[in-house]
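To illustrate the input format used throughout this study, we show a single complete record. The first block contains the structure-token representation of the backbone; no residue identities are included at this stage. The design step must infer an amino acid for every position from geometry alone.
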């Protein structure tokens, strides 16, 4: 996915079709506030398998996150799960079915426990997610 012309491409995935040639995309590893509606001209292709090292964030994203855009190693790590992924979450000595509703950071996710009210939604560390279901 191209952020700006002449800048590096960023891993993203389509979360919604918004029209004939318009799509809502989520940039992998970034907060949902950076989601965008884009045209096909900005979608550069499909990536198979994991993306090991994303490019550094665009200056506007880095500045909003309080990161020096010129500093080395300022790239946001790619997250393992995406919104909509169905997962198993450990809570105390039990395992519960849940759905990822938001990627908070590369290792923290907002989850909704299937069959429970949204009042039980919580942000969990990746260590509590056992895997996909």
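Output of the design step:
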């Amino acid at each position: 996915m191209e952020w700006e012309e002449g800048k590096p491409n960023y891993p993203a995935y389509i979360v919604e079709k918004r029209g004939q040639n318009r799509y809502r995309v989520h940039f992998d590893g970034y907060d949902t506030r950076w989601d965008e509606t884009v045209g096909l001209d900005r979608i550069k292709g499909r990536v198979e398998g994991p993306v090991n090292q994303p490019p550094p964030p665009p200056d506007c994203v880095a500045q909003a996150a309080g990161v020096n855009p010129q500093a080395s190693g300022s790239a946001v790590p790619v997250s393992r799960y995406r919104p909509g992924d169905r997962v198993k979450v450990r809570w105390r000595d039990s395992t519960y079915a849940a759905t990822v509703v938001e990627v908070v950071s590369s290792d923290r996710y907002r989850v909704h426990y299937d069959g429970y009210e949204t009042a039980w939604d919580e942000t969990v560390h990746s260590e509590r997610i056992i895997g996909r279901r």
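Structural context for interpreting the output: Residues 59 and 69 are 5 Å apart (CA to CA). The chain has two domains: 1-78, 86-132.
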